[in-house]
């Protein structure tokens, strides 16, 4: 695959041990059959497809295994061809499965789950998304019942509580701006997948004296946000840091332990020719830059707190507008 490098790089591209940071990418889409998506993705990624189970296939590449699956556990788990069933039932089931397959591929998203890619390899995702669009892939705008997302799992530079807090503060400041940039499709607006954090938690997070240890950080978050359904989901990170403490608040087999944030906000607008993987990634890099500039972060956090007060300025200016103007003035966008 070849592509120009369109994805910006964050100021902090390595972990504290000198390794290049990585990011996992998850893309939901429609418009292609399951078999067609596997065929095209295998060719575009230069990998070999290996069936894992019904509607779950790995594509093994030099960068790791990409997983392509139907994003619905009930469909994936169906086994109407079980040899324990009577022959007549199995014969009927084969016809039923054809109908189920056809319906599922029309209304249930197909998902591509990429391996943790080094930041320098993100052009792979840029090329893959653009070429799948050319082959007929569809995103959220295609139908009211589509609520497809493009999710990022960026590895953190380190796992110190102070670093995590800076990233969370930067996200809280930029949430409204990011949401406006992604132009979230109406189908995703009606879901609970991308809820903001609770106001009570955000108020505590944005204080100048907020310097919790790891246990305090996790406890504060989980007491107000004990759910995967947040625009920036911290549960995979917490499962990696302290699974026992997480289990005191949330038990969910879907939570996968990893040293990353889980950014769930963006929708997948893959059939829009003006939308690219870098459309999402480069906005995330703005957050990266802010999280790694302590002076600017402190300044904009104060503005965020001031914006909660009753004033003529706040009545006539939205926080989204204020944020965009500030980012422009300080060279972030």
In short:
With 333 residues, this protein is α+β, with helices and mostly antiparallel strands.
Defining traits:
45% helix; 7-stranded antiparallel β-sheet; 2 domains; 333 residues; alpha+beta; two-stranded antiparallel ribbon
Description:
It is a single chain. Strands 1, 2, 3, 4, 5, 6 and 7 form a seven-stranded antiparallel β-sheet that branches. Strands 8-9 form a two-stranded antiparallel sheet. The longest helix has 22 residues, at 161-182. The two termini are 29 Å apart. The model is unreliable at 74-78, 88-93 and 185-190 (pLDDT under 50). A hairpin with a 2-residue loop joins strand 3 (56-61) and strand 4 (64-70). 45% of the residues lie in helices and 13% in strands. The chain has two domains: 22-137; 156-259 and 274-333, no CATH class. The protein is of the alpha+beta class and 333 residues long. It is built from 14 helices and nine strands.
Order of helices and strands: EHEEEHHEEHEHHHHEHHEHHHH
Shape: globular
Helix content: 40-55%
Computed structural class: alpha+beta
Describe the largest sheet: 7 strands, antiparallel
Low-confidence stretches: 74-78, 88-93, 185-190
Strand content: 5-15%
Distance between the termini: 29 Å
Topology:
Blueprint: E1 22-29, H1 34-45, E2 48-53, E3 56-61, E4 64-70, H2 73-77, H3 87-107, E5 110-113, E6 117-118, H4 123-134, E7 150-154, H5 161-182, H6 186-189, H7 199-205, H8 214-224, E8 232-233, H9 235-241, H10 243-247, E9 262-263, H11 277-291, H12 294-306, H13 312-316, H14 319-329
Antiparallel strand pairs: 1-5, 1-6, 1-7, 2-3, 3-4, 4-5, 8-9
Helix pairs in contact: 1-4, 5-11, 5-12, 5-14
